[in-house]
Amino acid sequence: MAGRLAGKVAVVTGAGSRGPGLGNGKATAILFARAGARVLCVDLARERAEETVGLIRAEGGVAEPLVADVTRGDDCRAMVAAAVERWGGLDVLHNNVGIESRKDLLEVTEEEWDRVLAVDLKSMFLATQHAAPAMIERGGGAIVCVSSVAGLRGHGRTAYAAAKAGVIGFVQSVAVQLGPRGVRINAIAPGTVWTPMVESLGPEARERRRRATPLGTEGTGWDVAWGAVYLASDEARWVTGQTLVIDAGLTATTR
């Protein structure tokens, strides 16, 4: 895989894991670096960003940490400026930040709704809005936004499902706007991957999630990250406005 992103500058938001293990953002940052990109690892918690950077540097990769709250426009502006100042431009943005809400319609509060929509959807709007001009100046680029299968099928987590469906609509709209300027944007819809974000569900839920898919195997952050590498690379030069479903066949079932 060496060289697939050679010479490219990438920003990965949510690049740390909120607990032991490997989240989607951490895995993506590591694979981007292995593919030759210089990676700005962005996270709200400095120690999480620095942990991912340490793993990348230990393998001989190039990465820098940055603390930012990507629900704030000023932080997104500073994030892009840091990548440009450090490495001369920006080629890839991986919008990975997200939080979960497990409340249904009658349980979710207005405050929780607003928070989930801000983190899971508004963050992608702000990061993309500030990254796009730098990519256009560079001659083009690739943006990858992490959605979820929760945005594609009926789901009890109302705020989370709405935000993730919004990501898909956002990607389709922006693809039409930025395509003529050389910038591609796509979404990834992961299925029931096991990451630190869902660790609290416990072992029984973990096994139930595994058995729910036709493949019957557990997904990890690596599975999502490999999809991100493809969409960020020139191999996907003719792909934009699409949602890549990575779910072991879950959305093909009616269960």
Summarize the structure.
The protein is an alpha/beta fold.
Plain-language structure description:
- By secondary structure, the protein is an alpha/beta fold.
- Helices cover 43% and strands 15% of the residues.
- The chain has seven helices and seven strands; from the N terminus they run E-H-E-H-E-H-E-H-E-H-E-H-H-E.
- A seven-stranded parallel β-sheet has the order 3-2-1-4-5-6-7, sandwiched between helices.
- Helix 2 links the parallel strand 2 and strand 3 (62-67).
- The longest helix has 29 residues, at 110-138.
- The model has no long low-confidence stretch (mean pLDDT 93).
Properties at a glance:
255 residues; alpha/beta; 7 helices; 43% helix; globular
